[in-house]
């Protein structure tokens, strides 16, 4: 139980002190606890037990430390979050057990150096999460005011004074009471002022229309309004933002804006959404990125930022007393916040897309860059940038983020489910392919709804395909769980063993379960029908005119099950001209000797 006078803001502030360098920085690799979200939750729970410790001497020492090192690396945090309250906090972090302190010290600052990513932890859903943007989101959410007026005149206070004027940031009244919440249908996160879409996106980018075509919340059926729809009635005159939402700035908008400001201003930004592998899953210590040229906008960073936005938004609207952060995080990274299975880390992309529309995010990123320009006049990349140039950076950054991250399925790489190595030499596919072949796994017969189970089923299918069938690897290109995740099989680049005679022509995607009489979960269906192919088309892996076929249309099998096949035949890209082979069986029997009967699960190759 948390103490009576427990204060969640204090706890997050305490963790942020560590971020700000108030304690000595350990060598990487010295923390003794595994880099698990559970360890972070444990640390927060311990802080909650101890907060607030009010011993004056400790408070004084914190004051001193604070005075010695007043400058965080980021004036934006100072402007939006820290200020007076940082100095006033009365919490004795030194009382935290050494293991937990070590963990927080190491896990609390996000960084990418070479192929190593730091400040990330493994969550129970198998995702890797950067702790820094998550904590920043929690802290921003605990503040009363989120909407901050931009200091637009040229006499804005210089950055050195940042710590002293956060309360001067002329805060406008909280708009949350009248603005829609997470579960409401409108995707606009903020007030009409902040979200006002006055930048004509279509004028600068004709391709923006496809941003959120059909991302659905798995549980609440939120339909994301497309950008096209929102911009169609707006005038062409760009109006710069006058406010920002501190929650979006400190989690997402700042890094999004700065990365695209620095990076190559091209259509495709290769560094966004890089995945990686842990050294071990049971005791994760070391996270290595798969892509050597990754920017800071890794999947782990974007996961943490999105979790920070979602949980910060929740906290900013939660009535007092707010839930202890350790409870909130264990629900969010567990069965769902307040018993809602749709509000958990597994569905962060769907929930994130529903919470913030692309036009509102463009305004936020644009506003953040304007704010940074005011706070850091000497910033090398921002110097001399015009409003229009900043707006273009914000538009490009938002487009990449929404299309290449939010609009793509969350795919667990092979290392995450403990795949055995490929046997032999994989054959490369010649991309883009023209087909998506849909399968059910049949065995395992029950859908998997949690990472541990899904990963175990992946390993058992791979063992069966490699050891019993004698194949090189698991047959499918991808396997879709009912836990919100896609599991990488042979992936986008290697020929699979899923649809005999057609393996080089299409990707084989299986949904875990037996769909003879029942249908897969909605989230799994929308992944296969919409999200995965749309993402693959955008990335040039699948042809825009691709066809969807059920396994039974090409191979004599019941797969993907009557119920699923019937539904499949209503999908927009379904090719009805290829008749199921099972229906033609009778006419063929007379002409031809039947091939040996195989179990559906083994009839893949
Ligand atoms: C946007 O879409 C909604 C729902 O489909 C529709 O009612 C509305 O008229 C559209 N707005 C514009 C400006 O096209
Ligand atoms: C982390 O793992 C990578 C690759 O396995 C290795 O090169 C690196 O030295 C490791 N770093 C630490 C600190 O263990
Ligand atoms: C698959 O579902 C069908 C229909 O419910 C059932 O008859 C069959 O036994 C199931 N197969 C397995 C392996 O569970």
UniProtKB/TrEMBL annotation:
Keywords annotated in UniProt: Immunity, Signal
KW Signal (keyword) present: yes
Pfam families with a match to the protein in the record: Amidase_2 (PF01510)
Organism: Phyllostomus discolor
Lineage: superkingdom: Eukaryota
The protein's name in its UniProt record: N-acetylmuramoyl-L-alanine amidase
InterPro entries assigned to the protein according to its UniProt record, in alphabetical order: Amidase/PGRP_sf (IPR036505), Amidase_domain (IPR002502), PGRP (IPR015510), PGRP_domain_met/bac (IPR006619)
Domain N-acetylmuramoyl-L-alanine amidase: 422-561
Gene Ontology molecular-function annotations: N-acetylmuramoyl-L-alanine amidase activity; zinc ion binding
Keyword flag Acetylation: no
Family (UniProt): Belongs to the N-acetylmuramoyl-L-alanine amidase 2 family.
Gene3D superfamilies in alphabetical order: Peptidoglycan recognition protein-like
Signal sequence coordinates: 1-31
């Amino acid at each position: 139980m948390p103490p009576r006078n427990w204060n969640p803001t204090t706890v997050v502030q305490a963790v942020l002190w560590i971020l700000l360098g108030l304690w000595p920085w350990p060598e990487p690799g010295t923390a003794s606890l595994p880099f698990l979200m559970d360890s972070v939750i444990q640390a927060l729970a311990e802080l909650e037990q101890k907060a607030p410790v009010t011993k004056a001497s400790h408070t004084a020492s914190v004051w001193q430390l604070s005075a010695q090192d007043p400058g965080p690396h980021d004036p934006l945090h100072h402007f939006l979050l820290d200020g007076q309250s940082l100095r006033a906090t009365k919490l004795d972090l030194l009382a935290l057990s050494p293991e937990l302190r070590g963990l927080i010290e190491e896990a609390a600052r996000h960084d990418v150096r070479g192929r190593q990513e730091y400040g990330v932890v493994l969550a129970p859903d198998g995702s890797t999460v950067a702790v820094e943007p998550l904590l920043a989101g929690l802290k921003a959410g605990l503040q009363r005011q989120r909407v901050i007026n931009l200091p637009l005149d040229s006499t804005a206070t210089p950055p050195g004074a940042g710590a002293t004027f956060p309360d001067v940031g002329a805060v406008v009244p909280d708009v949350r009471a009248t603005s829609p919440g997470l579960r409401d249908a409108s995707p606009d996160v903020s007030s009409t002022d902040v979200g006002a879409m006055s930048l004509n996106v279509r004028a600068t980018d004709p391709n923006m229309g496809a941003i959120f075509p059909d991302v659905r919340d798995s549980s609440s059926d939120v339909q994301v309004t497309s950008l096209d729809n929102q911009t169609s009635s707006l005038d062409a005159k760009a109006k710069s933002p006058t406010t920002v939402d501190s929650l979006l700035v400190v989690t997402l908008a700042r890094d999004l804006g700065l990365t695209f400001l620095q990076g190559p201003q091209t259509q495709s930004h290769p560094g966004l959404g890089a995945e990686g592998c842990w050294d071990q899953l049971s005791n994760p210590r070391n996270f290595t990125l798969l892509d050597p040229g990754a920017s800071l906008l890794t999947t782990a960073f974007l996961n943490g930022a999105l979790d920070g936005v979602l949980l910060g938004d929740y906290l900013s609207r939660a009535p007092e007393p707010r839930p202890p952060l350790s409870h909130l995080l264990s629900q969010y990274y567990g069965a769902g916040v307040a018993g809602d299975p749709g509000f958990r880390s597994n569905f962060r992309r769907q929930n994130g897309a529903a919470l913030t529309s692309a036009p509102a995010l463009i305004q936020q990123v644009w506003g953040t860059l304007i704010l940074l320009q005011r706070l850091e006049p000497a910033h090398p990349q921002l110097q001399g940038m015009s409003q229009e140039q900043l707006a273009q950076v914000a538009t490009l950054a938002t487009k990449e983020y929404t299309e290449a991250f939010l609009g793509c399925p969350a795919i667990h790489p092979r290392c995450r489910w403990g795949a055995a190595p490929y046997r032999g030499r994989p054959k490369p596919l010649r991309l883009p392919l023209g087909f998506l072949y849909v399968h059910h796994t049949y065995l395992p017969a029950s859908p998997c709804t949690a990472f541990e189970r899904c990963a175990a089923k992946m390993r058992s299918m791979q063992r069966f395909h490699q050891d019993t069938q004698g194949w090189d690897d698991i047959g499918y290109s991808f396997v879709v769980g009912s836990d919100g995740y896609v599991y990488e099989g042979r992936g986008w680049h290697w020929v699979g063993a899923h649809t005999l005679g057609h393996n080089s022509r299409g990707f084989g995607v299986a949904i875990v379960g037996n769909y003879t009489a029942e249908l897969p979960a909605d989230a799994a269906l929308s992944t296969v029908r919409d999200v995965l192919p749309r993402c693959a088309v955008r990335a040039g892996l699948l042809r825009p005119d691709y066809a969807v076929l059920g396994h039974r249309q090409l191979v004599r099998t019941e797969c993907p099950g009557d119920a699923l096949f019937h539904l499949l035949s209503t999908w927009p890209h379904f090719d009805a001209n290829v008749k199921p082979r099972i229906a033609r069986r009778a006419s063929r029997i007379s002409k031809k000797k039947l091939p040996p009967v195989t179990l559906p699960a083994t009839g893949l190759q």
